[in-house]
Amino acid sequence: MQEKYIDRMQRTSHLSGGSVSYVEELYEQYLESKESVSEEWRDYFDSLVNGSATTDQDISHQQIKQQFFELAQKKKVSGTVSLEHETKQVGVLELIESYRVRGHQKASLDPLGLMERRQVADLKLSHHGLSDLDLSTQFQTQTLYFGKETATLKEIIDGLNKTYCSSIGAEFMHIVSSREKKWFQQRLESVQSHPAYDKETKMGLFDRLMAAESLEKYLGAKYPGAKRFGLEGGESLIPIVDQLIQKAGMYESKEVVIGMAHRGRLNVLVNILGKKTGILMAEFEGTAEHGLGSGDVKYHQGYSSNVMTPGGEVHLAMAFNPSHLEIVSPVVQGSVRARQNKRKDKTGDTVMPIIIHGDAAFSGQGVVMETLQMSQTRAYKTGGTVHIIVNNQVGFTTSRKDDARSTEYCTDVAKVVEAPILHVNADDPEAVLFVSQLAADYRYKFKKDIVIDLVCYRRRGHNEADEPSGTQPLMYNIIKKLPSVFSQYSSQLIEENHTNTAEVNQHIEAYRAKLDKGESVVKTLVDNPDKALFFDWTPHLGHTWHSDGDTTYDKQELVKMAHEFCSVPEGFALQRQVKKVIDDRLKMANEEIAVNWGFAETLAYASILRQGHAVRLTGQDVGRGTFSHRHAALHDQKTGETYIPLQHLSNIEKTFKIYDSFLSELAVLAFEYGYATTNPSTMVIWEAQFGDFANGAQIVIDQFITSGEHKWGRLCGLTLLLPHGYEGQGPEHSSARLERFLQLSAEENIQVCVPTTPAQIFHLLRRQIIRPLRRPLVVMSPKSLLRHKEAVSSMDDLANGRFHNVIPEIESIKPEKVTRLILCSGRVYYDLLENRRASGAEHIAIVRIEQLYPFPEDDLYNAIKQYKNLETVVWCQEEPKNQGAWFSTRHHLKDAVTRHIKKLKVHFAGREASAAPAAGYIALHVKQLKEFIDQAING
Ligand code: AMP
User: Are residues 748 and 664 in the same domain?
Assistant: First the structure.
């Protein structure tokens, strides 16, 4: 009779597996009160009890419950497909998905075991309608890449735990592209995140870890207490970088550019780039050779070398780095892009960037977001960067918990570009190796950024002289007792019979012997590097700004080029005002009207292109120009298509690239610095929307542009166009903070120029690339002068002129009558000119200083020496007294003036010192202008 009930139960889909307990509960209720369960259940339980009664056997309720259970088990084994099973199958699929999404939150990532790991509800069976009772049930694996179609729930969970919750925590499910998500699933699940590495690979890992640890120990013993920002606790970084480089070689890349802050830098320089340890020791001992500049501390130094990989020789470049932790990231991007462009590589396959970050800086510093944001834009993409976070879980002395960030992981910022993130426990070297391989493969396949979060620790303090347990006592209690990753891994390999203690010691001894000899320890280092792999800077070494180039250009050629860049394809519909600009340019070429700024600038680029140089111009809205003067990119009014006339000049080999930048100054300027310090033959220009926006990039100006050559011997021909001029627009859009650039000027580090005519900008831009000198050029560029009727030039000025550091008086004023000399820079000249004309004064000469630094003392002297009867000299500026050129230039003015007439003094005429750069009220602005112009003219 029982069979009858069992049959019924078998037909009752809800009676299986996890629902047994539910049925039991209902049955208990039924026993207490028949009415408390639904009619269907009542019938069912009735039939059970009645059924047992008809067998004449007294069947206990316990037995009935046991039947429920057995029946459920039987159903699982027989694999009968039921609705219940199907529901559970859905639960299994949900569970698999949950592991992919949130498995990383359960992974064992922290070698110290301190990482806060909250319970993840989605990873529990009950969350998906499953229970332990289902563990032996066979389910379809469906999307899982475990290599079999069905598996028991236990097998599935074990596999998922192994894949997603052991030493690797993979975050990739936030990526929108299903293709990419599937790629990760396939790569991780097919080996359950544990590829079986052979002995050779394991011994290779062993060797890298041994080198990483031994170097730190060696330096620590030899130079106790000396700052080296050691890698102890994060030694696994070395196998990662090593693997990435090997992979880059396999993908036939020719160069790898690395950017990193100080932690572990010496280790990477010695163990990856093959810097000779003798040089490093000399740096520790303070006996290293230094050039003419200030030099920099050893843990900021860059380095270059070539190493052999399975795919051939690869050039490695470690970027020089200031102490500002993250700023090197966009510099590296710029350097990589320059190298890729040289190879005409549009996909990023030939050069790979690797950037090594600290956890606190990665989550804390805004330039990280800016750099990530640029990674897929036209102007800045480099085919994907591999970011490595040396996550030692403490920022100097600031703890991760509560203070260092608001997000769970330091890497969360990378999700801004959907970058996959591979967290990995640094004490599991094989997991580390696996994520390195994945990262490289992903980068080359999808051309996008990827992040490796190497969760490690810092065995010592922030530096070697620092005691960390004062601020992180619990963490350091654990660290003290923790064996190093190398010692853990060598024990593992000994256990696996891949090596033995004697062999381990031999390896260490051999490595130390190399260090003692001062040799390079990198076996793959190429002794005679292929120089063709990198740019040749030798033609640019050893020049001073006195070596002017010839910036003249054949007039007929200029005219021809102008006609070329003033024509657009047949049918191209120009916007009305733009058409007027183009028509006017043609008139300028034909000498029907005077040359204006936009035309002269465009001709400068055209002539530079013709002379074999590429031009790269970026910045916010540069295509049109903030003040609508450039129109280098034209837009068809019917189709929206863009046409860049300078890209269609005849007889040019190199490219004209112009990109509107995304709304960043810091990363963008750093990128252009990186580009310009890598490629000496491209004219690289960054234009600020307004000059004061350069404030946002002050770190780049201070720590790279003005001091990079001095600190690191890196030349840089970058040009900055910074719109500057007091035109009543208020405190924010008037000043490019000229005073800051002048204050940073020393030892001829940069050129600061304030051109006031179209011919001046033509020759200034040409001079910057034509002469071999590569030094940054900072241009206070105009706004209203772009259209000022007096600020014009002739085609002859362009063809036959040069850049004048000083422009002498231009009007026919008799020198002997001149008793008053006004010196000035920039647009204020035109106000002075107008006022002098209005006053009819014949005793005033006005001389413009167009290059404020390096100060052209001889040129100024030559411009004023004809004025023998001078009585008064005035420096007139539109900026307030505490700003502009006055304080940093007056000694130069005085030198030139007193060289001419000893007793002369230089007086100031300008706005009173002011906290804000300019007045916000137009009436006040005009009043101030009138007053100081009057003061300059009339005294
Ligand atoms: P890199 O490819 O950046 O490693 O540079 C290769 C070599 O070119 C360096 O070792 C330097 O000798 C030289 N070099 C690269 N960039 C510059 C620069 N901006 N100024 C001077 N020399 C450079």
Answer: yes
Q: Dump the DSSP string for 53-100.
A: HHTTS---HHHHHHHHHHHHHHHHHHT---HHHHHHHHHHHHHHHHHH
Cα of 276 vs centre of ligand 1, distance in Å, is: 18
* Shared domain check, 871 and 772: no
537 alpha carbon – ligand 1 mean position (Å): 6
Q: Is 714 in the pocket of ligand 1 (CB under 6 A)?
A: yes
* Spacing, Cα 448 to ligand 1 middle (Å): 27
Length of the chain: 939
Task: Answer whether 251 contacts ligand 1 (Cβ < 6 A).
Answer: no
Scanning 806-911, the segments in alpha helix (DSSP H) are 828-839, 857-864, 886-900
Alpha carbon distance 455, 389 (integer Å): 8
Average pLDDT of the residues in 349-356: 98
Q: Give the position, in ligand 1's atom list, of the atom nearest the Cα of 302.
A: 4
Cα-Cα-Cα-Cα dihedral sign, residues 874, 877, 878, 881: negative
Q: For residue 309, which amino acid is it?
A: T
512 and 605 fall within a common domain: no
Residues 657-668: tens digit of each pLDDT: 999 999 999 999
**Residues 569 and 434 placed together within one structural domain of the fold:** no
Q: What is the mean pLDDT of residues 669-685?
A: 98
Q: In a 3-state reduction of DSSP, which class is residue 119? A: coil
Q: Domain range spanning residue 880? A: 806-938
Atom number in ligand 1 closest to CA 676:
19
- My answer on whether 621 and 520 are in the same domain is no
Atom index in ligand 1 nearest the CA of residue 316 equals: 4
Tell me the C-alpha distance between 362 and 939, whole Å. Answer: 57
Q: Is 304 in the pocket of ligand 1 (CB under 6 A)?
A: yes
Residue 157 falls inside a structural domain: yes
Say if pTM beats, i.e. exceeds, 0.85. yes
> pLDDT tens, 760-772?
999 999 999 999 9
Do 611 and 741 fall within a single domain?
yes
In a domain, 425, yes or no: yes
Ligand 1 pocket mutation pick from 304, 331, 333 by most atoms within 8 angstroms of CB: 304
pLDDT, tens digit (0-9, with 9 covering 90-100), for 448-459: 999 999 999 998
Q: What is the pLDDT of residue 460?
A: 85
- Atom from ligand 1 closest to the CA of residue 678: 16
User: What is the rounded CA–CA span in Å between residue 2 and residue 759?
Assistant: 107
Residues 757 and 826 in one domain: no
For the domain that residue 623 is a member of, what is the CATH number? 3.40.50.12470
CA 692 to mean position of chain CA atoms: 23
The 8-class DSSP code of residue 135 comes to T
Domain count, the chain: 4
Taking the centre of ligand 1 as the mean of its atom positions, its distance from the CA of residue 678, in whole angstroms, is 7
43 pLDDT exceeds 80?
A: no
Ligand 1 pocket residue status of 254, Cβ below 6 Å: no
- Residue 473, domain member (yes or no): no
Mean pLDDT of the region 726-755:
96
Would you say 259 and 303 are in contact if contact means Cβ atoms under 8 Å apart?
Answer: no
Question: From ligand 1's centre to the CA of 746, what distance in Å?
Answer: 23
The rounded Å distance from CA 447 to ligand 1 centre is 26
**Taking 90 as the threshold, does the pLDDT of residue 297 lie above it?**
no
pLDDT tens per residue, range 627-657: 999 999 999 999 999 999 999 999 998 899 9
Q: 718 CA to middle of ligand 1, Å?
A: 15
Report if residue 541 sits inside a domain.
no
Q: Answer yes or no: do 179 and 210 share one domain.
A: no
